[in-house]
Amino acid sequence: MTGATEVDAGADAPAGRPSQRTVAGLVAVPLLLVLWLAAALLPVPFVTYEPGLTLDVLASDDGRERIQVQGARTYRTDGELRMTTVYVTQPRARVNLFSAMGAWLDDERAVYPYDAVYDEDETAEETRRESSVQMVSSQDAATAAALRELGYDVTPVVEVLNVTEGLPAEGRLQVRDVIEAVDGQEISSAEQVGQVVRAAGAGTPVEFEVRRDGRERTVTVEPEATEDGPLVGILPGPGYRFPFQVDVEVPDSIGGPSAGLMFSLAIYDTLTPGSLTGGRVVAGTGTVDAQGDVGPIGGIAQKIPAARDAGAGLFLVPPDNCAEALRAPRGDVRLVRAETMHDARLAIEAWVEDPDAELPACTEEG
């Protein structure tokens, strides 16, 4: 009888020949290995964020207090005011697919498109330099905010925020030199400095009258011809003249402006009797300007878990970061909306007095 025959795909191949299944397996395994290797080695255009270290600004480093004050009485107390950081993939670093996927699946990490974080041609050195400038500026603004909170007068000035290696100002001008005059012209804005240098031209000595460590001095620098015109190699920017000297000492590896709020609170605590934190651990983040207004930052979803792991009971949040902060894994950490440095101080004092006190709370709207 004739009928249809069912073909067994797994039937033995003729003697001496490998089966189709065997051939497919022999081809698929190397291809799979190549794909896995490519995923492991080939970079993808993403940047990862993960919780970084937290640093108690009230503590000491190698026996030296992080908040240094000269010319005013200080009060060293217990408790902690912790600034928070984020580990971020550096420009042009290679992030593979596995790393990106791991960060995406982890609720304490994050992944962002590369061009949302860095410019296409940005280098690690440029990022480091910008971060260093932001740190200098944030410390000065934090000092101004803290001293104004204490009733001191603060005078705006123009100061050196960065000195570029390899250009004429290196070794002659220093970061935080207050620029009072250039070639006899009194300086009231950062733009003026560049204008005077360009007017002098390359090869013509320029005299900078600066105040450094409380003393006046004159420094002569000869501008160098560059593709951007005559330069001495400094970045002038806003600074402040204070009634006494305040320095915040943190590792050079930490940069950016986001610790401004915590710096201002630590300076305030150092200059006032008693413990602002009541011996407890308070963490937070946020830029701060000289008037004490708190601004938004990046990476708050990674900073809150880091603060939680450091034992913080309270975390200060810039209003614009509140919605994101509410979604961060925080455990028992209480989030407090900090619109100004003054608000943050009052909230800490109320919390120390009564841990269940009603405090400014974050909402999805801010």
UniProtKB/TrEMBL annotation:
Keywords: Membrane, Transmembrane, Transmembrane helix. GO terms for biological process: protein catabolic process; proteolysis. InterPro entries: Lon_proteolytic, Lon_Prtase, PDZ, PDZ_sf, Ribosomal_Su5_D2-typ_SF, Ribsml_uS5_D2-typ_fold_subgr. It comes from the Bacteria. Residues 132-214 form the PDZ domain. SMART domains: PDZ. The chain crosses the membrane at residues 23-46. GO terms for molecular function: ATP binding; ATP-dependent peptidase activity; serine-type endopeptidase activity. Pfam families: Lon_C (PF05362), PDZ_2 (PF13180). The keyword Transmembrane helix applies. This is PDZ domain-containing protein.
